[in-house]
């Protein structure tokens, strides 16, 4: 991570925390009244170079035992609390990650950090993702913002994520971050915020189209560019 990118991260995170402080308080009260404590959900995630850190989010799932549930969020997920479903739809549950940005665990723009259960996905060409600091905003977050709607009925959700969604997201991110600039990062922040109010960009049919050959040809070149910029 360059000095300029780190300074930008700190500036946006501080500004975002100050600006959203009243919203933090309102969301915290809403969660507490709806489903009690805890307000903040903390979970182990994989950071840059495989470093494990705890991500912060507003809790969107109810205080029940869902130990047998999939590692991913599904459409109309039974684990949602009443407030949590709204937070997830508007992405307001992501706000506490600004604290992770200040700590240096995350960047404002970067790939989504995965849980350790998906660590085996970072193999072969996808290992290049570990060279990038994970972030809140970015291409894959925007293009797959309706990810919960993409899981086919009757198919194991974890398996579908590992074999279909993760590779598509990884290829998209590796291609982008090999060429990313401060200005392109800022554009993704804006696009990600605007996207909350826009129709989903992708559905299951589009996802099933095989674009892997073209992506595969460019990903090796992208990995070389990543090594030269990190």
Automatic annotation (TrEMBL):
Pfam families: Bac_transf
Coiled-coil region: none
Sorted UniProt keywords: Exopolysaccharide synthesis, Membrane, Transferase, Transmembrane, Transmembrane helix
Residue ranges, annotated region (Disordered): 206-230
Transmembrane segments: 12-33
Superkingdom of origin: Bacteria
Composition bias type Basic and acidic residues, residue spans: 206-224
Annotated Bacterial sugar transferase domain residues: 5-197
Record-level GO BP terms: polysaccharide biosynthetic process
MF GO annotations: phosphotransferase activity, for other substituted phosphate groups
Protein family membership: Belongs to the bacterial sugar transferase family.
PANTHER family: COLANIC BIOSYNTHESIS UDP-GLUCOSE LIPID CARRIER TRANSFERASE (PTHR30576), UNDECAPRENYL-PHOSPHATE N-ACETYLGALACTOSAMINYL 1-PHOSPHATE TRANSFERASE-RELATED (PTHR30576:SF0)
Name this protein carries in UniProt: Lipopolysaccharide/colanic/teichoic acid biosynthesis glycosyltransferase
């Amino acid at each position: 991570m360059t000095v300029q990118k780190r300074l930008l991260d700190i500036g946006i995170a501080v500004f975002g925390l100050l600006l959203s402080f009243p919203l933090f308080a309102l969301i915290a009260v809403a969660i507490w009244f709806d489903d009690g404590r805890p307000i903040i959900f903390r979970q182990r995630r994989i950071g840059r170079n495989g470093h494990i850190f705890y991500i912060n989010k507003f809790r969107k799932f109810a205080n029940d035992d869902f130990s047998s549930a999939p590692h991913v969020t599904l459409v109309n997920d039974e684990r949602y609390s009443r407030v949590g479903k709204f937070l997830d739809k508007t992405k307001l549950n992501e706000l506490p990650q600004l604290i992770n940005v200040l700590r240096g665990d995350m960047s404002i723009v970067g790939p989504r950090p995965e849980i350790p259960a998906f660590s085996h996905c970072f193999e072969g060409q996808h290992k290049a993702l570990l060279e990038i600091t994970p972030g809140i905003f970015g291409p894959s977050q925007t293009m797959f913002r309706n990810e919960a709607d993409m899981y086919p009925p009757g198919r194991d959700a974890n398996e579908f994520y590992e074999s279909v969604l993760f590779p598509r997201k990884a290829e998209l991110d590796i291609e982008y971050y090999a060429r990313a600039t401060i200005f392109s990062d800022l554009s993704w922040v804006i696009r990600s915020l605007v996207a909350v109010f826009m129709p989903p960009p992708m559905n299951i049919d589009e996802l099933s189209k095989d674009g892997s050959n073209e992506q595969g040809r460019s990903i090796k070149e992208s990995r070389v560019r990543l090594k030269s910029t990190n």
